[in-house]
Amino acid sequence: MNHQFALKAIVFAATMAVAQASQAINITAKSTTDYFNLDSSIFGQMGYTVEPWSVVNGSSSVLAFCIDPLTWGIPSVTNYSANSYAPSDLVRNLYESSYSNVFVAGVYNSDKAASFQLALWSLTNLPGSVVLAETGGAFDNNDAISKDANTWVQAAKDYSYGGVSHYSYTEYKSLDHSSQTVLAVAAVPEPETWAMMLLGAGMIGFMGRRKSKKSEQFAA
């Protein structure tokens, strides 16, 4: 098995995994963060609670953020399709520069996730659709949430993309438009990891080939 074939096998396996994920997908609330900010506005209304999602496929679950805020999110809707998603430059830059901030010391943080959701909405809708003030929160953590969101939006605008993507993107869309469209990402393996995967695939192919030859000799 040469490296080119092994790489194709890995890509095919990943494609099949996404295809299978579209067969039975639920979304459930990941966390609820109270965000009501009198001085912020989202589509002309007062800044309100944001809620990241868990996309559940069998026993696996991935974090997802809404990219369709004008549609109400309905938990446990199962008629979703999973498709690869090509982000805009700003969305890509947001993930590259700030997605890791959602996890504090590797642990999911609901306030940081709320900030990321607000920043994502700011960059996936028309300018002025989402206005995030850093004061005026009805809850103690609101100012910090708005501040982080604004900081990360600016970081996305300032980010210098060097052509190396650290994430692959999957869009989960409700087929009957009854629920929000959400976006999840997966870390792209580092080159060293790809090399190890290719080596492992090559070893499996080599061992299978040896076993096949031994079987042929025995049969003879």
From TrEMBL:
Signal peptide start-end: 1-24
Judging by the UniProt lineage, the source's domain of life is: Bacteria
UniProt key word Signal: yes
Question: Any stretches that span the bilayer, and where are they?
Answer: none
Q: List, alphabetically, the InterPro entries matched.
A: Ice-binding_C
Protein name per its UniProtKB record:
PEP-CTERM sorting domain-containing protein
Q: Which Pfam families match?
A: PEP-CTERM
**Ranges of residues in domain Ice-binding protein C-terminal:** 187-211
> Keywords for this entry?
Signal
